[in-house]
Every structure is written in structure tokens, then in C-alpha cells.
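Section 3.1 - Work completed
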Amino acid sequence: MKIAIVFVGLLAAILFTACQTETSTAENTAAEPTAPPQPSVSATATDLPPATATVVPPAVTSTPKPTSTPQAQPAASAANADVLFVKAKQSADGTWRFDVTVAHPDTGWDNYADGWDVVLPDGSVVKVNPTDRFTRLLVHPHETEQPFTRSQSGIRILEGVTTVTVRAHDLVDGWGGKTVAVDLSQSSGEGFEVQK
């Protein structure tokens, strides 16, 4: 009988402690959620036999885990000078004239599309003068003219090269916008027209 009374007393103390912990946690909603502290109860009663000295811990309520914020996906590229259309026309001397339509949210002299290139399959850039920065340098912003078209003639493309890529560059972010692959053996295709 004594064992049952001591056991009930211990169980009541444990449940009371658990209720107090749960109440104080509910009142403090601004604090970070933590697991309720475990009561430190030791069964040292000398009149209890060893088999009944086990303390049953209180029912632990699950603490809600903080929801994770989805990670933002990195942008594919910050560069946004896009080539929208290319017209390539071959002259009688075998050189080419490229008319390239570019779109870029130019904001003025601090951020604008500043050039475009004709790139061969091996990655080399075709330039009228080897010291030029681009196939076609764009020397000023076009914030009030979007999209805009600029041309470059005198472009020599090696014999046997049938496909080139046209890309645009912007002053702040560099390369990385939309490009157009031009098949010089076709009269037209997606984003281009060829005249011979």
C-alpha cells in the first residue's frame, strides 16, 4: 500500500511539473521553441523495492519545428543584352554585312548595351579590325530606342564556316543574354535571315 501511495505521489509531482512547463511555454510565445525541461526526479525512497523505483517521464508534447524558408533560385544570368534578330547579307566581294537587333534596358551612360559580336564555332570573334573590342561597338545608350538595330559591314567569315552565333554585351553585366545562331547556308531560320 505504501508503495502505491509513493508511486502515485511521484507521478502527480511529475505531471504537475509538466503542466507548469507547458503553461509557461505557452505564455512566452516570443521565445524560440525549445523542448520542455525534463524533471530531475530520482527514486531514492528506501522503502521502495528496486523493481518499482522506475520513474515514468511525463508525456512530452512535440515542439513545432520551424518551417524552412525555400531557398531562392539563383538567376541564370544577370546579363540581359538580348539579340532578337539578325539579318546577314553577303556582298559580291565575299564579305558580310550583319544587321543586329538588340534589346537591353539601357538606363543611360552607366548601364547600356555596348557591343555585339559574330562568333565562329571555335569561339573566335570576327572583327573588321583585330584591335576592335567587339564586332560592332555601340558607342552610346539607347534608352529611348528599344529594341534597336545596328549594322556592321566588311565582316570576313572563313570559307567552310556555315554557322555563326551573334551575342550582345552590356556595360555592367557583360555577356549572357539571348543569342542567335545563324545558319549561313539557309535563307532564314529562328531569329535570322540570310541573303546572298
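Second construct:
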Amino acid sequence: MKTSENEPLAPLASWVDGAAKQSILSFVKRVTTEGSPDFVPVVERIAVFDNDGTLWCEQPVIQLAHILERWVEMAQQNPALRDQQPWKAAVDNDMTWFRTAIKKHYGGDESDMPAIAKGVLSAFEGLTTEEFSQRVDAFFRTKSHPSLKRLYRDCGYAPMVELLRFLESNGFTTYIVSGGGRDFIRQIAGDIYGIPPERVVGTSTSIAFHEQGDGGDLQMKAKLDVFDDGAVKPTRIWSRIGRRPIFAAGNSNGDIPMLQFTNCPPRPAFRLLVLHDDAAREFDYVSGAEKSLALAKQYGWTIVSMKNDWNNVFAS
């Protein structure tokens, strides 16, 4: 709370003053205090954040809601698709099929992923990057979460946005490293998180330049460039950033390698795991995070309880 008109809000104001908040404050103080044995130079203060379930809600996955609209549109244009997955589930509004497929993926069963990958890759084939951005912008301006009853653009977690600003105010450079689509997240990351597009690392489809006289466009292809999840996350962090992070935040089994990569003794490292345990304000589930939670308890990563560690989940 403000003490005067000229003094800023206390850091992490949306966080309950408990163990999780204090561990963050203590770590940042240690790595930013010159003379401290854990001092880290500004150029090495890299913080990476997963997106789905870490910075915004993932029930349902927001990008999937966008792709579902496109699949229904495709099935209307080509009725033969209505009997093929994932178009069939999209037309039938069968969210159980998608939830099961994602749960199976995080459990190591990839049997449904080829069908989903085929649908995702073909959904926006032939669009220019600008045309895709326009579609995404319209989606975020008009579409709302089915149960939270707020625009998808308002589904970012306020405490995590505060954490981004707090780290940046202490010399950290923050990045999003997501299994979600790079170009999808880039369109909205500035508005929701204050993170520019060049600091978004994510899954991407291939793109190709098409010359047009004295100009040209980048067009999206129905071919996977990189699926930025699991063990791919550390390799993408290195290829895109060129430094190991000292701070990493995630919420699922797919984030484990990124969290592990952050640890490089004797340099200090902070690993944060968001626990979805607040059915009243968001959702209560651990599916897809069982292994990460077990490792967090084993190695002392900081587990952040939505229910107990956050005063509010979303901005009012």
C-alpha cells in the first residue's frame, strides 16, 4: 500500500506476505547486492517464464480456443474434414477429447499428437505473418473465457505481471519461453505482460519469404519449425538468448528441463512452480504437473499456491 503520493507500491503487492514471496525477495536481494557472494552482474540476470498456466490460465488453452474457431471454419469449407480429428472434436465442441489428448501428452502418450499437429500446422497455411497477426488481434479483442467470463486478454495473472516488473526493476531481462505459438503470443505479450515480441520464444511453424516486385511477405507453411516444450526449451533458450537463466518459472512437467537448466552451481538459481489449487478464483488441478511438483518438493523449488500466496489472481 502507498505511504505517500510520491512513493511506489511495495513490491509484489498482490502476493501474500508468506514464504513464497519472501523467498523471491530474498533471492533478488542476494543477486543484486554488490559484495554479496551471490551477486550476479546485470547482463547475466536472465529470467524465463512459461506462458500457459504460468502467466495466464490454461483451462482451456487460450491458443487452442483460437485454433478451434479456425478448424470449424475449415470444416465448413470442406465437409470431409468433419469426420477427421481434430476437426471433428472442434465441430462437435468435444473439449473432453482435447483435454484427454493434452493429458496423455504430458503423461508420455503421444498417440493423439500427430492428428493435433496436422490440424495446427494446416490451420493458417498460406497466411502472411501480418494476416495472422490481424486474426489474433481480433480474437483477443472479442473473445471471452467460457467460465471466467472475462476477455481472454484479461486472463493474465496479476501477481505474475507484478513479478515481471519487480525483476525488471532489479536489472533482470525477462523472456517468455512457451510451448505455445510464438507468433500468437507475440501479438499480445506487450499488452498483457509488457514483454516485446523479440523476447518471446515459442513453438513455430515454418515461414518463407515471397517476393512481390519491390517488396514481399513472409507466408506461413504447414510445416513444423520447432515444438518448444520439454527438453527443447533449454536448447531454444541457448540458441535464442545465449545465456543460462538464473530465474525460471513454470507450472507443468513440460517445464522441468527449463527449470533444471537454470541450476548451474555455484551460481545462484531460483525455480518457481505455480500450483493451480484455487477452484474459487481460477481452477484446481495437478494433472500434467505431477512430476514437476514431486521434483519441486525433492529439490526445494519454490511452489506458489494460487489459493494461499496470491491476494488476487486477475487484475480487477
